[in-house]
Amino acid sequence: MTDLVTDANDSIDASTPASTTVLAEDVHVTYRVYEDRPRGLADRVKTGELRRRYREVEAVRGVSFELREGDSLGIIGSNGSGKSTLLSALTGLLPLRAGGIHVRSRPTLLSVGAALRLGLSGRRNIVLGCLAAGMSKAEALEQVEPIIEFSGLSEYIDLPMKAYSSGMRARLTFSIATVRTPDILLVDEALAVGDMEFRERSKERIDDIRDSAGTVILVSHHLSEISASCNRAIWLDKGVIRADGDTDEVIETYEWAQQPHQRWATAPTKPLGDDERPATPLTSIRLLAREASPPILARPGVSFDRLNTRQAESALLQAKTLARGMNVVRLGPTTFIASLGEQEYPFVANTAPGTSSYADHLSDFVERIRLLLDRSGLPTPRRTVFSTREGQVAEDFLAGGSGPVVVRPVVSTSGRRVSIDLRSIDDVESAAQRVSRRSGGAQAVIEQQVQGRDYRVLVVDGRVVSVVETVPAHVRGDGRSTLGELVQLKNDRRAEHPFMAMRRVRLDADPVLVSDGSPVEADAIVPVGEIVDLGANGHLRHGGDIVDVTDETHSSIHAVMDTAAKALPEWPITEVHLIAEDHRLSIHDQEWSVLGATVSPRLTMHEYAGDDACHSIADIVIDAVAGTETALPSKLTGSITVDLSIAVQPDERYASWLAEFCEERNVVGWIGNAADVPGYQGQLTGAIMDVSAIATRAIGGPTGIVPQQVELTEPRAASSEIGGFEVRSAHRT
Amino acid sequence: MSKQVAVASEHDLIVLGTVAPLHTYLGEMWARRHFAYALADGDLRVKHMNSVLGQMWHLLNPALMILVYYFIFGVFLGARDGIDNYVAFLVAGVISFRYVQAVIIQCTRSVPANIGLIRSVQFPRALVPGAVTIEQTLALLPGLLLVFVVAAVDGAPITWRILLLPAVIGAGASFALGLGFFGARIGASLTDLSQVLPHAFRILLYTSGVLFSLQRSVSNQLILTIFQLNPFYGFVSTVRWSIMAQPLEPLVVGSFLCWALIAPVVGLWYFRRAEHQFGA
Q: Does ipTM exceed 0.90?
C-alpha cells in the first residue's frame, strides 16, 4: 500500500475527463451466521458434525456498477437489503465471495457508529483520525484548527467524545474524514444527523468532492438526502439491484414499490369514516390474498426490464407460444397477445427468480366476452378482427353493410385509439394506423356503429342494480374563448368537484376536428351558443356526464340484462354497455345493442412458485389460447385486482357482493389506486366514485388504506398522445 | 481479458481486497508509526481517566499483587529461602512477566476492541497489535521504576548490565508482539481465546520461574532444560540478569533471543494472511 491518495491525484491530471473511479462487477458477499444454540459435544460426535452449524447469508448477490469522476451514487433499500454490506465491501474491508471491485484509490468510509475513540477528547480524535488517514504528525496538527472550525464544535472539543450527542459525533467524524478532499468517499447514514446548517455544509463538501473529479457513494434511509446529493441511485433489495438510474426515478420506483408494505403497516384499524375519506377517489383496488406476498409491479414511466429479469422470461413465453404455431403480438416487454386463428389471448407475464405470474386481462379480452354475450342471445354489433396491414377484410366488412363503422384496438384501451363514424376505406385505414401506432399490434377490430344513447347497466350478483346514461362531454361557445380554452375551463371547474376531479376532458392531437363538416382546431374560437360535442370515442366515458336513470328505466331492460348476466356465470359481469334509443321505452319497441361487458375480476393474477414456474405458465397460457380452458389451474394464489370503475355512485349491494367475493378468495386486505395502472395517470376512467369507501365497507375490519398521493398530470391538450376525444359534431341550439 | 480487467487497466484502477506486498506494507506501517503511538497513548489515557489515582494505578496494581505473592510464596511457602534479594527477584519477575502477558492478552482482544476504527479507516492492521505493544511498553515504565527502587533498597548489585535493559525490553516486546499477532488473528474470530488465555498464563506464571527459582524446584535435568527453553522464563531471567546481575545460562538467553527474532516474523506472516477479513 503506497500513499494512494497521492497516486490518485496524479492520475486525475493524466486521465481523460470522466474516467472510471469505481468498478464493481458481479460482487457477491456472503456472511456466515452461526447457529445460536450451541450443541453439546455428545451431539456433535454423534452426528459427526464437529464444527458449529452455520448458515450462509448472501448479503450481496451479483451487484455490478461503474462510477465515473464527479458521480455521486445513492444506495437505497430497506433494512437488511445489503446496502451497508456493499459499502463495507467497497472499502475493501470485507472479503468478496465472487466478483471484483476496482477503484482508483482506496475509498474513505464515513459511518455514524465509527467514532474513533469515544473516551478521548474531540481534539485528540482529530489528531488520531488525521494520522490514521496517513498524515504526518505535523500535517495532522496543522489540520486540527480547520477541522474544529468546520465541525462547529469548538466549545466541546476538549470534552471526551462519549459526552457528545450522536449528531455531534457524526459532525466530527465527517469533518475529519473530509478535511482532505477524499477521492472516493463512502457515507453511511452519516449526514442524516446534525442540524440543517451542518447538513448544508456537508452537502457542499460532497459537491466539492464531485467537482474535484471525486466520487461519492451515499447510503441513507433519508430519500430526500439522496435526492439532494446524488445524480444516480441504486435500489438494492435482498442483495440484488432492483433499479439503477436517475435518482428521482429510482426513488420514485422504490417508494412506489414500498407502498403495499407501508399500507399494511399503517392500515387503520377501523374502516375510514366519511371525513377521513381520501381526497383522491380511487378507481381500482388490488386485493391481497392471505398468503400472497405483495406483488411486484412496474410503475408508469419505469420500464419493466429495469426492475428485474422479467423481460427475458417473457421472451421465453413468447418463444414457446410461437413454437406452438401461434401468432404473438408484442405490446411491451411483458405484455403481448397470443392468437390462434380467431382466438386471441392478451396477457401480461411477469417472472422473477423463483416465482412467476401471469394475468388474464379478462375484461380486455373484449372479443371473447362479446362472443359469450352473442351466444346468450343478446344483439351485438357485427364485427370482425382484421390485420391493419391488409385492408381487404375491412373493405369486405364495409361493403357487407351500411352505415358508419367503428375501428378500435383488440385490447381495450378505455376508449383510446377508438375511431367512430368511419364511412370510407381511407378513413378505416387511417383509423387502423392509429390503432397500430398505439399498440404496436398488427390487429384491429372493425365494427358496425350502433346509433343510440349510451347506457351503462350495473350488475351485481346477476341482477341489475342501477342504470346510468352517459352523455358526451361538450362545451358551449362564448364567442371569446377558443375550443382549447373552453375545455380547460370545464376541466378547471371539474377539478373543484370531488367526484368530477378526474373526469377531465381531453383533446386528441391527431384527429381533424370537425364542426359542421369543417375542421375545428383546438385554438379556434367557438361562436356564442354553439355546443361542441366532445367524446365520440365509442365509449363516451371520458369527460362525459353521468345521469342516474335507474328509476325511470323500463322493467323490460332490467329483465333482459338479468338474463344476460346470468348467462355468464363463469365470469361475473359487473357492468353491461348498452346502446338503446330510450331507456324509458320497452326494450322490445326499440333498436338496441350490447356493446360489451365488464367482468370481475378484471385482472386475475396467477402466481406460481418454483424454478420452472415460467414454463408451466407458458403451457397454461398456450393451452388457454388453444381453447383448452380446462387447463386453467385451480390452485391459484396471489393478488386479484378488481376494477371498480363502474359508472355509478357507490352502492351497498355492490359492497356486499365484494365482501362475498373477498371471503371466497380468502382476501384479507386491499390496496389500490388507479394510478398503478400504467397509462392511467391523469387519465382516469370517467365514472369516478369513492371506491375506497366501498371496499372498506365490503371488507371491514383492519383494512383500508392511506392512499398514496395521486398526481394528476395536466391534460396535455393538443400535444396529448393518449387523449380520448375528438370533436364529433357541433350544433347550435 | 474480461470487461472489468480491461476497464480497470485502462483507468489504472487498483483491485480491492488484495494484500499489499510486504515491503509496501512495512513502509505503510512505518509511515503511520505516529498513528500507532497516538492510539497507544490515547488508550493509556482513557483507561485510568476516571479513577481518582489515575496513572498511579499502573504502579499500584503490580505493587499490591507483588505484596500478595511475597507473603504467599516467599514467606509461607518459603520460596525466598536461598535466593539473594528475593524481593527484587520477585518484583523484576512479576513486572516483566506481566508485561508480556498483557501484550499478548491485549493483542488477542485488539481486533474486536478496535472494530470501529478498522471498519472506518484504511491502515495496515498490524498497527493494531503494534499499538497494543507500544501502549503496554509505556505502561511498563512506572513498573520498571518500581523494580529499580526495590532493587536499590534490597541491596541488589547494580552493574553496567542495566544499560542493556532497553534492548532486553525491546526483545521482550518483539517476542510478545510476535505471539500477539497470532493472538490477534485468532482472537478476531474466536473471542473465546481471550477467556482461556489468563488461565494459560497462570500456568506459565508457575512454570516460568517468576515466583521462585526453577533450579531449586526442578531436580530432573531434562525437565529443567525444557523449562529453560521457555521464552517467558528466558525474558524474565534476562531482565533479572540486566537489573540485578543474576546469573544467566547461554541456553536460556539463546532460546529467548531466537524467539524474539522468529516470533514477529512468523506472527506477521500469519496475521497478514487475514488482513482483509478483520472488520467483517
A: no
